[in-house]
Protein 1
Amino acid sequence: MAECPRGVGRVWATRLGTYLFSRISSDEGTDSRFDNIRGSPPKFLGAFFAQATWVTLCLMPVLAVNALPASLFSTLPAAIGITDILGALLFVGGFSFEVAADRQKNKWVQDKNTKKHNEEFLTRGLWSKSRHPNYFGEVTLWSGIATLAGGVLVSNVGQMGMGLAGGPLGVAAALAMAGVSPAFVSLLLFKVSGIPLSEGKYDKRYGDRKDYQEWKKNTPMFFPKF
């Protein structure tokens, strides 16, 4: 089942690329996140390498599977394993959750721009179940990719392909290689650029409003409450 991590990686990349292109195209062809650094080559270079590092660490489980010798793939068991099922469920669930959350927010922004509502922040749909449903979906889908890849890497074929001797250390190395992806995404979203920036921005703007305080009090930050 080595094709599974590759396949879902392509799905993620295609979806992210089309989403960002569509968002930038609708915003006069620019990305406001780069407005303050576009005129500074060193800062722009730093942003480029930061994004390259992000993509590399996110795709580490897929890259690890791709690095295995092609001749070994034919020796993998044809039967679907528990990691294949669990990984696919996590990926499909997380991917669907993130896409739905992004579409709801885009629709909300479009309606606001056309004066169909005057709400200052989104509290409907999945955004009433979690304050960051898109981030929940992102972490979940990468957990699914890590699970799919981990099933291959911890197998005898995966251990042989990576030049590991198997045993506890070999399995631990394979799991670490697969797990770095969701771990890095979680670190980024929880401690660096995702949730802290978003929460800080909205707290500064609406922190004194009772409706915002009520929504924040009753809506989980990350894990959805249904």
Note: The chain has ten helices and no strands.
Protein 2
Amino acid sequence: MSVGFGFSVSDFIGAVKLVGIVIDALSASSQSSGELQALLRQLRSLDTTLQTIEQLEFDECLRAEVLALKQSAAECQLDIT
């Protein structure tokens, strides 16, 4: 299902899964530096935010705003893929 902003729901889901994979890989590293731990915290925060956006339910009167928010989230995901 393609939305009019050039990304699809499957793109969004794929990016969320990718963030989870990166988090798991970084968590598995037993000798993580402070910088790596900071990155891991940021990725977990991003993952939580993207999952929350993915699950948004909205009134039809807010459709444009929610689509804009989802577009912004998808652009963030493109930066991390």
Note: The first helix runs from residue 9 to 28.
